[in-house]
Amino acid sequence: MVSSTLHPGGRSSRPRDSVSVGVAVRDEAVRGVVLGLLRLHRVPVLGVGTKSSRVEVGAPTRGTSLLVGYIASPEDAEYFDTTLREAGEPAAIALVPREVSRPVIERLEKRGTEILRLPTAAETFAQVVRSRLAILAGSVAEGAGGSSGKKVET
Amino acid sequence: MSAVSSKIADVVRDRGVSAHSENVPRLIPSELDAFCRRSGPQSLLIRGPPGAGKTSLALALLESFSGTRIMVSTRVVDHQLERDFPWLRHEDAVPIQIVNAQTTPHALARAAEAIDSLTRVVEEDSTEDMKSFLWLPGPVQEAYASIDPSQPAMVVIDSWDALVEAFIASGAPGRPNIPNREDIERLLLSYLSRSEVTLVLIVERAGSSQLDYLVNAVVTVQSDLSGGRLERTLAIIKLRGLRVETPTYPFTLEGARFRSIGRFRRGSDSDDHSAGPYLPAEPTPQGWGFKVWPGSSDFDAAFGSLLPGATTLIEMDPEVPLEVVHVIIDPPVAATLAQGGRVLLTPAPGTTAATAYRYYRRLVPASVLEAQLRMVWTHDPEKLPSDIKRILIQVDASTAPEKPVHRQIVREALDFIDAAGSGSSAVPNLRVGSSTGDHHVASALGSVLVPENYPDIASGYVANQQSHQIIVGWTGDLLFHSLSDAAALHLQFRARNGRYFINGLRPYTPYYVISEGDATHPYRLTRMV
Q1: Which residues does B4 contact at the CB level (< 8 Å), separation at least 6?
Q2: Is residue B266 scored above 70 in pLDDT?
Q3: 8 Å CB contact of B93 and A34
């Protein structure tokens, strides 16, 4: 899904000034669920998939502030890694089914990815994403010299 | 500022007209403006065929809205929206978030698969809301996500027909319990009504549907060709909870912007008949030359110059009040008087000498009127004030048809209009008459005006190239139409639903709608495109 903002003066762009969320989920059905969950909880999604994988035509994920992935297999893990690199190593949340082995999870945690075990309550998922976005928005505001009360736009 | 210009400014002040008059052609109808300003979730359906102006109206609604603006549009590829509506690039344009409305292949089947996979991600007891939400097309989900529930928002879906039909057509073969269009529309309205959202749905298909009953408001837009000229009309079909003062609005897409035209409230609708006709003229431009200034830059841009030696015909249908025609006629009269030119009036039957005199008297001193204004008058002048009597060329029916008297009166009128003006810069004189008025005067003089002799008689007033004449007549009046071949400018005035359209027959022009003026314009003409 391509979302952009028509700015006065003729600039048409995605809202880069604010934190933004991308989705890296190889499994089409689960991707639909993740997208729906994010959107139902008022989190617009900037990019889907990777440029190289062509899983789904969408905006490239470079510039994404937070990447949400789903890892149930080694192929999923590889896809997630690729997408993370293409997106410039943003903050990440990995949705991981309970049957996934501990070493896989440890590898994700080692690179700073937040783990959310599945299945989970929809509200729990939303809270995890929101709190991570709030932290990112705070750092964006600090980086811009703004106040901590900056509105989170996603 | 000259004395006359100063006087014009006084008149403007007296009439309470400000530079921000609400009479300036408005962007959207006042009823829709009020609708969009209401708080709480609400929905509006805009229906019309392709090219009728639906997107332009929706953009105008977004532009006038003060909260979050979201447009779900199919015109995203290659910046088509900006190409079609270049004003969106202007510095003062409002920011609009655009969501690509093009659905992905197999979107419906993917939604069904996602619903089947819900419990892989979400615990069973929190899937209900998600199940419904996933049946919404992706672009609608994205628009929903972009809404801050604590802020008012307007979401336009352009077009809902294209979006929902592509979504359904993407298909989910073999899958039971797939929602149909009506189900999806109910879900759409249900989710979008969770916060303070004004939802605007654009549809192309003709005829009403379930949506007409579900939404709070329905408007239609359409365009028609009339005499080869384009007319666009907005009709308010339904507006729940608001009184519809004016159910139809002509509108124009000049400059790729929607602009509706309200009812014209001067002229016959005005309570202020005693003040005489309307607003004065715009000042004559520097270096205007030996032409009659029409008193309106809009008129000049639309129809061109009023040249000496030429005749302008203003043809009106019976629905057009004479007062409205005066909105066009009076500015060149005022401008000519202000520039030192002479004006000869032959009022139409029913027009009082006092009304015309009072209006021009407000703009120029009595001495100027005495020198520069004459009115051919066939009625008993006894009860008129002396200052009015001094400007009359009196036709005394009791002495007609004595030929010497007849010739004397005509000679007096022709001598007056043929003389050079008295101003510092030479300007042409102006004769304003009507075919019925000329016929009335001729009858009072014992003559008969017929289509065979009227063109020659009328052309006598402009024969020496010192003056321009404007003649008003009714559509279908043979006497009036006998002048058509000789007219340099032939305008047509029509009334419809309280609006007044004017167009050029010669030269050919599109329709213009006349609307009230402001502090600097006696009236405005809006081109219908």
Answers
A1: B337, B338, B363, B364
A2: no
A3: no
